[in-house]
Amino acid sequence: NLASLEVRRVLPSDVNIIQIALVSESASRDKMKAVAEDLQDKLEQIKQLKNIKIHGLPERIVRIDLQLEKMAQLRIPLEAVIGNLQSEIANIPGGSVDASTKSFNIKTSGNYKDVEEIRNTIVLSSNNKNILLKDIAAVYSSYAEETHVTRLNGYRSVFVTAAQKPGENISKTQEVYAPVIEEFKKTLPANIDLVQHFDQADNVNKRLSGLGMDFIIAILLVAITLLPLGQRAALIVMISIPLSLAIGIVLMNAMGYTLNQLSIVGLVVALGLLVDDSIVVVENIERWLRDGHSRMEATLKATQQIGLAVVGCTATLIIAFLPLVFLPEAAGEFIRSLPMGVITSVLASMLVSLTIIPFLSSRLLKETHGHPDGNIFMRSLKKLINGSYSVLLDKALSKPWWTIGIALIIFIASLQLFPVIGFSLFPASEKPQFLVEITTPLQSNLAYTDSITKQIEKELRAYDEVQYVATNVGKGNPRIYYNVIPENERTDYTQIFVQLQEDTPPYQKLALIETLRSKWTPYPGAKVEVKNFEQGPPINAPVEVRLFGDNLDTLRSLAARVEQTLEKTEGTLYITNPVTHLKSDIKVDIDKDKAQMLGIPTVTIDRTVRLAVAGLNVGKFSDENGEDVEILLTKANQGQSTLDALENLYVNNQQGKAIPLNQVAELKLESSPININHFDKIRMVSVTAFVGKGFLVDNVINDVVAKMEAMPLPAGYSYG
């Protein structure tokens, strides 16, 4: 009973880097489609982009509204209409023939070319008279049923998205697509506006500029720190910073790592570490120079003296970050570029401090100093050291056991701070954007979900810090964040992508999220969840309890107990149990014996019901533009599918006689699960929860695990 089988492969590189809204309240669907496809064509010409898609616009179809009553009068069975249409759609190659020294392909009748040809399809020949499709049906171009409604800031929109090909530089890619979009915007009609409300390149450029600012601050701090050694020593150390970073990036690239959010964070962390080696080497060379040695001698002996210590310190730092490199599974794969950024930069720093720094020191440092104790900054530093610090050091060395004891007490006391501070492997995103997810009662139709969504939209736009509200009714927003997988089409679901003003600080975003959570929990007629973007590999929720077993009813019972457990756990919110309710389906229970006696094949009943409710897809044809257009058979005056579509429905037997559906089938209500999940081929139910403000995920998970350990489970059932 599968309607379709879909295999999806989710990769972080498939995230969209741009999302563009074509906004219009008055343009026709045909015009919006034409403009969206023109923009799609422009973006597809950019070699750095891939997966250019249009969202929020139903597919164009040819609709055939059959008059079933007239078909019954003319004794035209549904199977005859379907068979004739599919035979005309069939495009069977004629093969090839040889003529003399040449070979020619044989082209046969081919497919439909336009709607008029479909209208003139012969469905039955009787008494030397052909009955055409247009005699029993209305045939016209239309659009498929709307299942995904998109708006920007409350205005009707069509979204166009594009992802970037692997190995491309997003900043350089932006330089290519930005002028193309700007030029296309100038060609739009007056009643259509183009708004590029999401551009990932802006976020990346902002991070890179932040790295540049950290880089400048690091150089200035080094210059201030090395004032006691003199300007030349400070210059040598400052040279080591960009040099070490550059070599580190080259090493990362050689090992297959690129510049991304995490590797940039790694480089920022490394900025505070990579100057240490150079400072130690330069300071030691300066000390040897003050003792009267030549530049070459001071450089060689000072580097030799300190070299082993530099290697040891570097090895210690590398070993400290190695556990993150070998972190297993998805979390390790996700975070690996961060420690690699630190390791390669620190390793480069060691190489620079033992090679380039000694070379520059032997050329740039002065052999003589005006004062035997150094410049004024060095003398002030020595005075400070020989003062209070020297006294404290003497006392510490004179009582070594007391010193060790106090150090151990401080160390042990600091360990007690871990439970207070807590632990979280992946922090929340600081980007000025978040998601609002709306879930209406099970099996709500799209119109009801949209009405609730419009209320939420209006309330969101009332906040000054909100810049864009991208609404997706019936489906998730196109993928714009690496670990958020869009929800498939559902009539009871809406996802709103909210973007704040660019200068909105993280604390203000978090305050707004908490305000909205308090305001919309609970919300009449729907469940409204405000979710911040999180770092880390893709997960359903920060807290997830998976129950494994064979029997669905038992799993439902266990899931209800887990749901109650999560509700009683401090710090949890937005608890979701997907099997709380069962959906109700209407089953067409066919009396096969009666149907067989009346000469009605079961497939004819199935097709007739499908035609009356959702329409029956009989195939596709290529129009004059080369686009594949679906041909949909429906019942005349069908409109929106309701229970009325099944009333007074007739099915034809093999002789073409119309027989009421209720004579061979009965409509029954039956319950079924919303979905059935499996993990490693074992049936599974997953109960999830998010974590509120002021609570750490690790602490909440530990609390949940302790409660789950105390919960008895039937034999053959487990949790994870």
Summary tags:
720 residues, alpha+beta, Alpha-Beta Plaits, Multidrug efflux transporter AcrB TolC docking domain, DN and DC subdomains, Multidrug efflux transporter AcrB transmembrane fold, 5 domains, 9-stranded antiparallel β-sheet, 5-stranded antiparallel β-sheet, 45% helix, 22% strand, elongated
In total, the number of strands is 26
Summed up, the domain count is 5
Radius of gyration: 35 Å
Major beta-sheet overview: 9 strands, antiparallel
Number of helices: 23
**Percentage of β-strand residues:** 15-25%
- Report the average pLDDT across residues: 86
CATH topology of the largest domain: Multidrug efflux transporter AcrB TolC docking domain, DN and DC subdomains
CATH architecture of the largest domain: 2-Layer Sandwich
The amount of helix comes to 40-55%
Class by SSE composition: alpha+beta
Uncertain residue ranges: none
